[in-house]
Amino acid sequence: MFFWSAAMIAQGFVSNYSGLMATRVFLGVFEGGLFPGVNYYISQWYQRHECGFRMALFFSAATLAGAFGGILARGIAEMSGVGGKSAWSWIFILEGILSILVSMIAYWCIYDYPATATFLSTKEREEVERRLTEDHGHLSNDFDTKYVWQAIKDWKIYIFMFICMAGFCPIYSFALFLPTIIKNMGYSANDAQLMSVPPYVCACFFTISASWYADRVRKRGIFMLGFQLIAIAGFSMLAATAKPRVQYAGTVLAAIGIYPQIPLGMAWNSANIGGSLKRGTGIAMQVMGGNCGGIIASYVYISRDGPRYIKGHCLLIAIIA
Fold it and tell me: Which residue in 119, 147, 226, 309 is a FRET match for 111, CA 20 to 30 A apart?
């Protein structure tokens, strides 16, 4: 976390395309293990039917970042010219500094496993380990490469990779182009940043509440299917009409539909993989599939298709379906 925060700060000082690409590469290298690592970490502390809600709390930070990022970007836009730097440079610098501070705090506050958690008493550590053994059985936690190969050869994990790719593709597209979509509804650039907040707030609420209830009833698939239908309805509204209010309602429905799918899918996959090393590998494979969706996302909304981006909306409908 410290190093990708440093890479983010470095982006604020680049002056050409080559420098930007170099810092983006380092950002991707250092940041790549964060999402699968945190989800694996959660699975090491909680029983399977308790993980979805915790994963949703972590992932909801992405929706909150989208919400408050718009407000923050609007405020930092006023810093344009300070220190001879553009507003976008200050966004990278200030957010990178904040992330570095969080990484330093996290190093001292987060423990690897329940067995090493000094904030727990001996009896509490034993109880946590008993619950995990009761839930996971006596599956091996040994570090042996055969468990990595078991994950690679497990066809079910590849299904979850494709599900995750279909989930992350609209999320990346939505996050990258939401301000542009809203701006093309007739709002100014600064107002578009502010108008992008409500869809993320709604997505955050439904991400957390749906995952909590899914844990409670111990079902995942039916929830994912329901949110996929909501997402399809949202993107259909964006593609079908040019009325700003209807389009904005479509962005809210799209956000509600796409964001809850990720923690639901992560919890579903991790709950079905036995053994800590195989589970960690399976989670990493799932996120790798999701990141491939990010590659597709950069080609969904093409400038020549603006201002309606009908082709992009229809493509996302097809991917979700």
Answer: 147
